[in-house]
């Protein structure tokens, strides 16, 4: 595992957004290999503390090595960030000064053929972040009906050829690996046009469904907001429009004092703003970063501050 290459997306932008300082308390809810977390610890030394949450045991093992110099100031937990509130209680932390969520998939997972996340390698149809998850991409691909498959590809991949691809998958069953699936999609959807491989949306859709990613985001955002101390910051990196839409909508709504319909003369909802939107438009990586790390090209960073 030590040879796995990993690059932390928008690294400097994250450190600038969170503004870590000693003796603050910070959470990296998507720890990965610990690249962002290491930067946070460097910035909040000597007395800052960090809670790292990571659902993937392989990534967590790498993070333990990365963060070894900060033993005593770092707590690492294998869990989903959807359990953020409960984990903070277990740690005895009442509030924190910053929370990072780097959503989606990491290069650690993409580069491991056996995990089945990438069409660049031949591997099993797995796609689980958490190996204990009973649902796999294999089950979705080989057991779902045509209508179910088409709906997954449409909802989670925004795939315009969802029905055609679903039909092709049904006809090709059993589908046993990632390369075979990618070839089926290419034949059904046509060859690559532009920078996006024709199988990208299909693989994204299956991965999101397997890991219930969109529901997880909706679950964690209120917990993260509640955990922030006044002036604490929430920094979230998304990689596709489905994620970004959820994050944008949440931050915008929690930055308003009233959520009543615009034409309603008197507020009846009683909602009060708890966040201040720091980035009206998302921060995008520059050309230097995207040239070095192609995965960064679709990254969007949104930042909010607890009122």
Word description of this protein:
The protein has 307 residues and is an alpha/beta fold. It has two domains: 11-102 and 214-306, Rossmann fold (3-Layer(aba) Sandwich), CATH 3.40.50.150; 114-211, DNA polymerase, domain 1 (Orthogonal Bundle), CATH 1.10.150. Helix content is 42%, strand content 14%. The chain is built from 13 helices and seven strands. Strands 3-2-1-4-5-7-6 form a seven-stranded mixed β-sheet, sandwiched between helices. Helix 1 packs across helix 2, helix 7 crosses helix 10 (200-211) and helix 8 (162-172) packs across helix 9 (178-189). The protein is globular.
A few lines on this structure:
The protein is built from 13 helices and 7 strands. It has 307 residues and is of the alpha/beta class. It has a 7-stranded mixed beta sheet, with helices on both faces.
CATH topology annotation of the largest domain: Rossmann fold
C-alpha end-to-end distance: 41 Å
* Total DSSP E strands: 7
- Top-tier CATH class of the largest domain: Alpha Beta
Structural class call reads alpha/beta
What is the oligomeric state here? single chain
Unreliable stretches covering 5 or more consecutive residues:
1-5
Q: What shape does the CA trace take? A: globular
Biggest pleated sheet: 7 strands, mixed
DSSP summary: helix tally? 13
Number of domains: 2
CATH architecture of the largest domain: 3-Layer(aba) Sandwich
**Average pLDDT value?**
95
CATH superfamily of the largest domain: Vaccinia Virus protein VP39
| Proportion of residues in β-strands | 5-15%
Strand order of the largest sheet: 3-2-1-4-5-7-6
**Helicity, in percent?**
40-55%
């Amino acid at each position: 595992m030590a040879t796995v290459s990993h690059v932390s997306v928008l690294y400097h932008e994250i450190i600038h957004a969170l503004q870590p300082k000693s003796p603050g308390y910070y959470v990296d809810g998507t720890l990965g290999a610990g690249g962002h977390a290491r930067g946070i610890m460097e910035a909040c030394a000597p007395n800052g503390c960090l809670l790292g949450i990571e659902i993937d045991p392989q990534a967590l093992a790498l993070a333990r090595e990365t963060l070894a110099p900060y033993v005593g100031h770092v707590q690492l937990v294998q869990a989903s960030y959807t359990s953020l509130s409960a984990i903070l209680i277990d740690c005895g932390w009442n509030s924190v000064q910053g929370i990072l969520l780097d959503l989606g998939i990491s290069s650690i997972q993409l580069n491991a053929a056996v995990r089945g996340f990438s069409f660049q390698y031949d591997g099993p149809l797995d796609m689980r972040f958490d190996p204990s998850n009973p649902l796999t991409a294999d089950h979705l691909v080989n057991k779902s009906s045509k209508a179910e498959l088409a709906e997954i590809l449409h909802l989670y991949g925004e795939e315009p050829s969802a029905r055609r691809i679903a039909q092709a998958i049904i006809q090709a069953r059993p589908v046993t690996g990632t390369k075979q699936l990618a070839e089926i999609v290419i034949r059904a959807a046509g060859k690559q046009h532009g920078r996006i491989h024709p199988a990208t949306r299909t693989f994204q859709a299956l991965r999101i469904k397997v890991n219930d990613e969109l529901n997880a985001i909706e679950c964690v955002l209120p917990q993260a907001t509640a955990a922030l101390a006044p002036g604490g910051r929430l920094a979230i990196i998304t990689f596709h429009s489905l994620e970004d839409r959820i994050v944008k909508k949440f931050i915008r709504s929690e930055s308003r004092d009233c959520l009543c319909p615009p034409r309603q003369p008197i507020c009846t909802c009683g909602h009060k703003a708890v966040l201040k939107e720091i980035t009206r438009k998302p921060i995008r990586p520059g050309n230097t970063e995207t040239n070095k790390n192609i995965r960064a090209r679709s990254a969007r960073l949104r930042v909010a501050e607890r009122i």
